[in-house]
């Protein structure tokens, strides 16, 4: 009885601390034509969520062409990070808006 | 005659920034009118492009212009209503409108790739002129804080449009 409960607790701790369960959602706010924070650090499997507070549509478009997320006015857009490495991105509609995601393995 | 002359001078200066460099600073009602007029001009230009162009990138750019400038002008109208400011017609607005009308007539004679190039080149030039005016005249002259704030956000948007237009222009070559 007792050893079983300990093993179960151990499993729960394990599940919370490693593997896919640790994937995080990292929020980037878009307000008045700026990504904030401009640079974020993430891991493979994490999700970036862009929350657009502007009344204009924006995109988060990787400079290398790997991904393109359209974010409607007052909505949010998400991207699951699949590849490690640093990716610069910009808004296709307003290329003066720039950001960077650094993805560790 | 003097009015015609000054409008002519203003129009002639349109391709360079000093069109907005009036001897006296524009008032808030005049600034609101100029900013709104510039937005409407760009919407009209985009509508012409959507009628005439078959180029996917040019059409997408034009659609972006209609969408963004419509939204900014919606916010501008809401603000002037809230502030109880009546936008006031002025020489700069009139010169802008006159020049834009001439440009539309000129572009209307062009077709295909020639139209696309001329439209996009004008978009680059127009946004440059407006952005310069915002930076050097309109924003510094604006007295109301909310109007200044809207103009500042507008400047960021239009600087984005300027770069976007430059990107399209580079792709057309």
Could you give the topology of this structure?
The complex is a heterodimer of chains A (105) and B (173).
Chain A (H helix, E strand, L loop, with lengths): L1 H16 L7 E6 L4 E2 L2 E5 L3 E6 L5 E5 L5 E4 L4 E5 L4 E6 L7 E7 L1
Parallel strand pairs in A: 1-4, 3-9
Antiparallel strand pairs in A: 1-2, 4-7, 5-6, 5-8, 8-9
Chain B lengths: L1 H11 L15 H25 L3 H28 L7 H18 L3 H30 L3 H28 L1
Helix pairs in contact in B: 1-4, 2-3, 2-4, 2-5, 3-6, 5-6
**Mean pLDDT of chain B, as a whole number?**
90
Low-confidence stretches of chain B: 1-18
Mean pLDDT across residues of chain A: 87
Give the terminus-to-terminus CA distance of chain A: 40 Å
Alpha-carbon Rg of chain B, integer? 16 Å
Mind explaining what this structure looks like?
The complex is a heterodimer of chains A (105) and B (173). Chain A is an alpha+beta fold and 105 residues long. Chain A has one helix at residues 2-17, and strands at residues 25-30, 35-36, 39-43, 47-52, 58-62, 68-71, 76-80, 85-90, 98-104. Chain A starts with a helix and ends with a strand. The relative contact order of chain A is 0.21. Chain B is mostly helical and 173 residues long. Helix content of chain B is 81%, strand content 0%. Chain B has helices spanning 2-12, 28-52, 56-83, 91-108, 112-141, 145-172. Chain B is elongated and about 45 Å long. The chains are: A alpha+beta (105), B mainly alpha (173). The interface between A and B is medium-sized, with 14 and 14 residues.
